[in-house]
Amino acid sequence: MDTEAQHTERDRSSCPTESEEISDTEGMEGRSRFALVDRAADWLPGGRITLTVLVCLLFLVLFSKFVMQPFQIPSSSMERGLRIGDRVLVNKLAYRFGAAPQRGDVVVFDGTGYFGNADYIKRVVGVGGDHVVCCDKDGRLEVNGRSVDESTFLYPGNSPSDVAFDVVVPDGSLFLLGDHRSDSSDSRDHLGSPGGGMIPVGDVIGRADWISWPVGHWTRLERPDGYARVPAAEASDSKKADGAHG
């Protein structure tokens, strides 16, 4: 019986357990990955340091292309909030998962064929279906029948517009204005151009969420309260219809 017991013990020890097999497999895969890294490092001048730098640069390029991209402010058209030379971080995912630009958002867009062959930064004043008028009896911008208080972001001394306009924004488009109205070329200046001064939502690159530079001007760009009480275009239309029947 002792001999049988010894044979049994030897048989058990000679068969690897499942956990041992898994451990060996994981170890081989890990060694393979390290071997690939070592080969790449050996091939590059500077070895692992150069490889680390290249990986970081690749990450930054992909992050900038698909997630958050810095833009420099080239003009005074968005003062007082955005000054010449400021750098803003533009959220390129803000409108990629079913969300849409909202009134008051500051957006960067491709103006090719509409404003000019460049990227621009402006504030969204009207979205698809909105009726935008300037100006009401008190000299304020009016959207869907509601006057908008722009005092928190409009450049000091500027009126909402020196140019009168009365437009309905087509679906899928935006009506955009600079905050420094007297020094901004925006939707007002292109009312007679192709597209009527409107920018397709599809040409929006992203929403400017932060001022990242200079450090002393680091600020999160919030949507102003002035647009919060503007009714949706549908609600505005229904009120007009009710008034007509009355």
What is the domain total for the residues? 2
CATH architect. name of the largest domain: Ribbon
Largest sheet: 8 strands, antiparallel
Termini gap:
107 Å
Q: State the share of residues found in helices, binned by percent.
A: 25-40%
Strand tally is 12
Shape: elongated
Query: Which percent band covers the strand fraction?
Result: 15-25%
Task: Kindly describe this structure.
- It is a single chain.
- With 246 residues, the chain is α+β, with helices and mostly antiparallel strands.
- The protein has 2 domains: 2-64, no CATH class; 68-245, Umud Fragment, subunit A.
- It contains 4 helices and 12 strands.
- The strands form 2 sheets. Strands 1, 2, 3, 4, 9, 10, 11 and 12 form an 8-stranded antiparallel β-sheet that branches. Strands 7-6-5-8 form a 4-stranded antiparallel β-sheet, with no helix packed on it.
- The longest helix has 26 residues, at 18-43.
- It starts with a helix and ends with a helix.
- Residues 1-26 and 236-246 have low confidence and may be disordered.
What's this, in brief?
The chain is 29% helix and 22% strand. α2 (18-43) packs across α3.
